[in-house]
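Office hours follow-up: a student asked to see two folded examples consecutively, so here they are.
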Amino acid sequence: MAEAPLRTTSAPTLRPADERTVTGREVPGKGETSGHPGPVPTSRSIIRPVSAPTPLAGTDEAPRRSPKWQARRDAIIDTSAQLFARRGYHATGLTELCAANGLGKGALYHYIGSKEALLAAIHDRVMDEVMRGADRVAEAGGSPSAQLARLGDELLDVVHGYPDHVWVFLHEFPALTGERAEQFRLRRREYERRVEAVLRAGIDAGEFRRVDPRVTALAWLGMHNYTYLWLKPGGRLSARDVSKRFGEIFVEGIARPGPTAPSSRRR
């Protein structure tokens, strides 16, 4: 999910460290109590990371936190993705974010750091899932045409399964600044290179025509990314139905003519 449309606020001061911890234990911020953690999004809107995200530039987030703290932070990210998708990043204020998450401003910044850090965390969540899918495809191996088809399966699973996160990813990335913008650009480009590598392997193996890998990868990404506009849960086609058809259209379109022309069927 790299191109978005595939190119690639002022935050209050963070709470001081002595307000956030007491004898090494996290304590809730103002407006948060252990009995009222705030609304948690539904399972469809939650992408659970395998490990804690890398601390973002410009925050004082500690590198290690308790599982309870991390789970609460994940829930805040997912709830906020829903809010940004409905209202837009710039139109959503701290008051709305605090209300949606059942937190005071101090507690919100304890978990997130800043509004822009929250936006970056949503982007990271999407890229984490997309890169996990690319890793699974690489580990499974197979012919280049089969790998390209599986990459499509994995990408559409993310687009279709997590529409709020993906909407924010595709629409709000220009709001990222400085190191966060650069991190997003680098991760996006890493995924693009994965797709390009499969295309080059297909050309070298004689499965694909001598297409331009970069331009072809961007076409493939655009084809899959923008299904978020029309592929809806409960519709006539599932994400895998669409991925199968896309694989057939795309692979047949770049296949090298002749009896050895590849199929998008898994091998």
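And the second, which I mentioned at the end of office hours:
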Amino acid sequence: MGGHRLGAGSQFEGVVVSKYMVFYNTTSAMRDQMAQIPPEQSAAGMQDWMTWGERVGDRLVDMGSPLENDGDTDVQVSGYSVIDADSQQHLDGLLEGHPHSAAGGTISTQKFLEIPGM
């Protein structure tokens, strides 16, 4: 799956694409539920993520990582990925059927901006 590329955009098959940060949001109830999942079920869930990553292919710049959640805020970002996409609509298509959404979580995205002069 994708390799690390720097900058806010890159070329993919000759087309300039934008880079998007994908945030995986969970509620405290979902995090509590996930903490109780047995290892075998957790492994099956990771296979769903790997299958999704294979479907996205080279557009997946960075599969990302889970993030530690602190504090008592109900909804928190619990992980991230970085994806190259032609547009927000294209990104939405790549995220369709994502295992995080299927598990009850929500996904938010933000487009990387170019750094002036870089």
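Two things to take away from it. The domain at 9-111 is CATH 3.30.70.1060 (Alpha-Beta Plaits). The chain has one domain: 9-111.
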